[in-house]
Description:
Two copies of one chain form a homodimer. Chain A is of the alpha/beta class.
Amino acid sequence: PTPIIAIANQKGGVGKTTTAVNLAACLAERRKKVLLIDLDPQANATSGLGLAKTEGASIYDVLLGDRPLAEIIQQSNDPRLDIVASEVDLAGAEIDVARADQYLQRLAMALEPLAHQESYHFILVDCPPSLGILTMNALCAADGLLIPMQCEYYALEGISVILNLVNKLHESGAAPRLAVEGIVMTMYDMRTNLSRQVVEEIRNHFPDKIYDSLIPRSVRLAEAPSHGLPIIAYDPNCTGAAAYRQLAREFLKRRRNM
Amino acid sequence: PTPIIAIANQKGGVGKTTTAVNLAACLAERRKKVLLIDLDPQANATSGLGLAKTEGASIYDVLLGDRPLAEIIQQSNDPRLDIVASEVDLAGAEIDVARADQYLQRLAMALEPLAHQESYHFILVDCPPSLGILTMNALCAADGLLIPMQCEYYALEGISVILNLVNKLHESGAAPRLAVEGIVMTMYDMRTNLSRQVVEEIRNHFPDKIYDSLIPRSVRLAEAPSHGLPIIAYDPNCTGAAAYRQLAREFLKRRRNM
Ligand SMILES: Nc1ncnc2c1ncn2[C@@H]1O[C@H](COP(=O)(O)OP(=O)(O)OP(=O)(O)O)[C@@H](O)[C@H]1O
Ligand SMILES: Nc1ncnc2c1ncn2[C@@H]1O[C@H](COP(=O)(O)OP(=O)(O)OP(=O)(O)O)[C@@H](O)[C@H]1O
Ligand SMILES: [Mg+2]
Ligand SMILES: [Mg+2]
């Protein structure tokens, strides 16, 4: 079945959405068919790909079993990249889903038929900055967890929390297929010692998990969402585009060797 | 009674903790007695002030009524700045608090006796990156909401969501005293058009809310937490220290003119 990759980290602002949108676009450029699911009520991945946040378009009803997933899949500007949009109502879903049966498996159950149809090469899920019900659903549905990690001190502190959670979910059977796909270092600024120190710390602690590709801090990456475009459409020759293309290559290479 | 200021924004990584820690330290430097409450399970404000995350030290038991607040107040290196630490257990509080009576008023009830003792000039509350139960408790307990806002596009999108919530909580009576204290622009990089455009957009939409003080992007601000120090102790003469001192002056001036 189609591998499902959760892009999560409870630390805020580490580049989850930027990685979800740009990795999805770079995989599509390499002729992979990708579905991106925006599971964050902030709906940044939705606007980052140029879609409007429309009421009723989010995965909310699907998680409660009131609507089939196929009905809410939308096309993006790229024929190989589809998206399930989000909207602010999704914030209310946490409480409703928490009261539903098998509340951690709602996304897994909704995605299972689609994953078995294999109409996509990958399903990516952009998560909100917390380890609440929505992120837990993504982890329980996922085959892999991709952790974007800012090259800063506060981001360093939280990494063991999410890694422990992955072990607990895997061992308890709530997330039977879940393994750490990799850690991608973002907003790397080669001019500062702080960035180098944080990368070194992660390389020492998790040598087999960290991707070689480092995503540099680049204002072009921060500008692209205001045009509703992934970086390879907004500024195909900038350092940010090159870095995400490299990450897509490395992501595919690791998957082949799994 | 002592004014309670919530520092909140559901967008992740916008500088909530950096603002909470450094504004608290700058107010203490101006001879104000301040209590900083870390309401985020990530416990970044706790480590940002050099305290250890110890199990059982968080506000978790206080929110459930099992322990008085006074028992968990700790001293920081600064005699005028006290802190209520956080730890990872606090993540479990969201579910337990949601099931308690008056689940939105738990923090307000816990803080009320302390606010009436007036042993502090200000109580600041650092919030997690969400509009879940913990942040809602902070808003319902607060007199003012300080919104740190990164000078970037995704941060712009979320501002109306939290402002609408403030109106709803105020009108419904859940947060009777709550008003927007101000919007502080963070990580301002004068070299980029993006920063200038976002600041202009906020100035146009919320001219009476935005602080004049702009917090510049400065690596010294990102380095200070790894030493467990606020910026005025880590590098008192850097641009980040000057900017937070200016914000403290402006914050006090606005409060006086209220
Ligand atoms: N490599 C980069 N260089 C410069 N800016 C970046 C980079 N990656 C992301 N950004 C910008 O930093 C901010 C945070 O990134 P993003 O929103 O993708 O993080 P996030 O983890 O999804 O945040 P949240 O926790 O709120 O979901 C955004 O304004 C984004 O445009
Ligand atoms: N003005 C600044 N210049 C440079 N770096 C900054 C600045 N303000 C904050 N930072 C750094 O940016 C990152 C995000 O800031 P911070 O953690 O304070 O945001 P937050 O809103 O509290 O995040 P979260 O949503 O996870 O709670 C941190 O690594 C911090 O050290
Ligand atoms: Mg995001
Ligand atoms: Mg924080």
